[in-house]
Amino acid sequence: MKRTLLGVGIGAVALGVSSTGLAATMRGAAAPLLVGGATTLQDLSDRLAAAPRRRDFKTVPMILTSPDQWDSEALDEVLRYSGGPKQVWDNTALESPWLNLMRNAMNTQIWSFRHPNFLAVSATHGSAHLALYDDYIWEKYRFAKLTKGKQKTNAFILEPADAQANPVDFNDPDGVFSPHDNSIVVLQKRGAVFLACHNEVWELTMGLHAKGDNPDHLTHSQMAAEFTNHLIPGVILTPGIVGTLPELELAGFQYAK
User: Fold this and answer.
1) Can you tell me the distance from the alpha carbon of 101 to that of 224, in angstroms, rounded to the nearest whole number?
2) CB atoms within 10 A of CB 177
3) E-only strand ranges, 64-184
4) At CA 185, angle to CA 224 and CA 257, rounded to 5?
């Protein structure tokens, strides 16, 4: 089966205050906004960037039964992560402050409690899952109407101008770690991981299919495959978020809602 590699960004920007931290951070391209000392998180980010994602499905079933139907290699890397602390956010509402809360947790763990290898994971489902689809799906299936016009496009994957600020000044109120950068892409560059939910894909497409919102006249299983194929780069597809949460908790992740 064809496996497609989807990474999460390029470049290297350092946060460390020392030249040693700068050099260490610049060796990694998967998460270029990691702080000095985040060596375990950098290793995970590099492994996730190299882990395959299958995005060439023709059809998918309602219940996934084989690891090659989800991003099993990447998910296993997250479950095996040896650094910490580790926190999983149960994110269900697109219009909630979910990205802001994740960013605040990361800032506090990294700079207040001095845990540079802190891993934040978004267990994404519900309406928040809309943020994990690319512009093609947003346009084709008119997602703006699903948000009642509040979101014309997927603004959650845009990289704000503030993300270009000097990351050395982590207390810059307009900088890369500020509320101006509540972006999936920016958080990915900081090492955060976003998990997608097959069950959410199946149920959203079931609703669209039933309403006739189906411009290519696809079957339901074909439409679900199309949505899966258009998850944004770096996202890890799971067979179902609610069923994956216990696996994360067994692996030592702290649950946050």
Assistant:
1) 30
2) 26
3) 86-91, 119-124
4) 75
Dihedral pair phi/psi, residue 124, rounded to 5°? -95, 125
**What residue numbers bound the domain in which 201 lies?**
4-256
Which residue bears the tokens 């809602």? 257
- Report residue 17 as tokens: 């205050």
Residue 147: which H helix or E strand, with range?
none
The pLDDT tens digits for 16-73 are 323 233 233 333 357 899 999 999 999 999 999 999 999 999 999 999 999 999 999 9
Three-state DSSP state, 174: coil
Please report, for the domain that includes residue 13, its CATH number: 3.40.1260.10
DSSP 8-state secondary structure symbol assigned to residue 212: T
Question: How far is the C-alpha of 44 from the C-alpha of 118, rounded, in Å?
Answer: 11
How many folded domains does the chain comprise? 1
- Contact partners, residue 169, CB within 8 Å, separation at least 6: 175
- Cα separation, 99 vs 192, in Å, equals 10
